[in-house]
Amino acid sequence: MNSTAADLQAAAYLIHHSGLHTGTHFANATDAYGALDVCAAVYAVAEGNIPNAFYDDECASLDLIEASDRAMDAIRAVSAALDTAPCETNGVPDYIEHVSNWAATPPIGATQPPTTSEVIGRILRAADNQPTSPRLGFTDAWGVCLTCGGHGTLTTDGEEIPYGELSPRRKQGYDLGHRFHRNTSKTCPDCDGQDRVTDAAVSAHEATL
Fold it and tell me: By the 8 A CB rule, do 84 and 98 touch?
């Protein structure tokens, strides 16, 4: 099973048993059942822990979640399954805000936010939409290489590459809000450094058909 799909299913199970928190911060310190915000639940299953910051520090919570590639993959998947598009923060799609606000805010024309069952249902729908058999040399819905797990990185050896020094293709990815994390010193045989498969990878894939 796709790891993102498995994380989403686990998050749905966690919310079903522990409840959904939609108030201040990402978790309710006074809730004996340990209810979590939908993004906090995704982080909990992806990283295997619930940081104390979730109970009292929203800024730190955001930093922790954003730093988890695995959690963000699942959160982006939920965002893609919603009926609205994410807003942008500093020119970048804000997937955490999109998913958390969707679960806590009444939709247009309604007076109540989605029920916990509806939230769980949408998470499971997102899980069902995940690819089950990645194809060599192709990218997922966010332009991440299914073989190497990233590319088109905007950092090298931990140092950010200035926008002016990016290639035209990488500038295009940057403008689209793409953020990748693979070190540029590690070449990928299946992608061209942005979000397009190489000819060699296409040929290799076609040879398997």
Answer: yes
User: Parallel, antiparallel, or unpaired: how do β-strands 92-93 and 88-89 relate?
Assistant: antiparallel
- In the numeric block, which tokens belong to residue 131? 């690819």
Token code pair at residue 35:
């209810």
Strand partners, 139: 145
The pTM of the full predicted model, rounded to 2 decimals, is 0.62
- Run of H or E residues at 102: helix 95-104
Distance CA 67, CA 87 (A): 19
CA pair distance 78, 61, nearest whole angstrom: 19
Q: Residue 183 — left, alpha, or beta (φ > 0 → left; ψ -120 to 50 → alpha)?
A: beta
Q: What is the pLDDT of residues 31-58, one digit of tens each?
A: 545 799 999 999 999 999 999 999 989 9
160 residue type, one letter: E
